[in-house]
Amino acid sequence: MTQEMIIDIVREGLMTIIFVAAPPLVMGLLAGLIMSIFQTVTSIQEMTLAFIPKILAVLLSLIIFGPYMLGRLTSFITYIVSSLPYFITPR
Q: What is the pTM of this model?
């Protein structure tokens, strides 16, 4: 196993983490931003008001982007498992 292979595995793993985690995080961020603007405009300062829309936004993003996220994870795991013989063989 060479350094280039290790760097490639780590890079692919980090990119997979970013692409899988991004949709729910962005949807939760947007829902929180919208609720914060709504609370500021209406002068409602209830702390628990923003939780339900955030939870619904994250669940909606998991429903919408779930197949993409699962496909991305599956392709990464397939890449790792299919590359195992190259990782194990000595130089």
A: 0.79
